[in-house]
RNA polymerase sigma24 factor
Amino acid sequence: MNETDSEFTAYYAARGRTMRNTAYLLCGDWHLAEDLTQTAFAKLYRVWGRVQRRDALDGYVRRVLLRAFLDERRKPWRREHSVEPGSAVLDPAAQEAVGGQGVELREALAVVPSRQRAVLVLRFWADLSVEQTAEALGCSTGNVKSQTARGLATLREALGHQGAKSMKEATYLKEVTS
């Protein structure tokens, strides 16, 4: 294995799980999350030798992951499948780590439309600013703010909670999936 491959392998070992968790929060399906993560890292590997800013790798992978997710959601056959409440299945490793908590939030997140879900995941799980989220999604900061407000309203409604409690649960979700 050459030095370039070793660097890529080390980066994947360090960030692969986090990106997979991000993908899962976006799509709500561990198998699709694996596919999205593999797609993102495969695209990164193709350009690895040309990457000059190693500090921007997370943003690049996250952007590819997000675009792959949104492309997947646009496919007509994806619209035929809906996530039923109570049907969220946790990865066994995640189930062990979470201890059964956070399932309600994951199920509620599955109800949020994909674009709003992407904004919520990037803002509250990936800790991106409004500007960084807008850049990742290729939209305006105003769009990010409105999608955040709509997504949070949908999330609160799905959870049946009001106000800060859903935000506390969003923070908890980040802690248990990190």
Summary: The mean pLDDT is 80. The CA atoms of residues 56 and 62 lie 10 Å apart. The radius of gyration is 16 Å. Residues 1-81 form a domain with the Rna Polymerase Sigma Factor; Chain: A fold (CATH 1.10.1740).
